[in-house]
Amino acid sequence: MNVARVLRALGRDVLVTGLAGGATGQAIADDLRAAGLPHDLHPVAAESRTTLAVTDPDAGRTALFNEPGPEVSAAELAGFTRRYESLLAGADAVVLSGSLPRGVPADAYATLAAIAASLGVPAIVDADGEPLRHAPKGRPSIVKPNAEELARAVPGDPAEGAQALRGQGAEAVVVSMGADGLLAVTGEGTFRARMPYAVRGNPTGGR
Length: 207
What we know:
It is built from 7 helices and 10 strands. By secondary structure, it is an alpha/beta fold. It has a 6-stranded mixed sheet with strand order 5-6-7-8-9-10, covered by helices on one side. The longest helix has 14 residues, at 74-87. The chain is globular.
């Protein structure tokens, strides 16, 4: 949702999709509607999770408290995957981000990225843990971990870790490094970028 908000603010057409269930799932749909963000959410029987973000503006720190999320059945996942494939028609790119709910295999993002690749749609994967380790198998255009997520997934410094993910199938790896900016490892070379001033607030998009 944060990705969609930013892209929409930049004037791009977006469509939010994913799994949503229960009263929280309805609240998600209502929030998207209120924000003017088109969506096509696939229903699941279990309740969608909530996340509480606590921000200390003076220290510039944010703590996230995540519920475990719903249990998704194989039939629900299959239904979503079919709908996802149909939604890719005419898309310029797809962003696959966030933690996977229970019942969804760790290689789900790799599978979804591979479907996108087969249709000529670039996929950007932002994941952590096992989903991040599996993601390059789907040959995504970009894998975008932060420095901590990358360190948990593969050994070495950020540049070495990014090269390792590229070696496993990702076309490019972009690592967000907080105040140290971004590191991009691509087929054209390695690049660093850093903001000329400090940015404060919730790193997931809130202020």
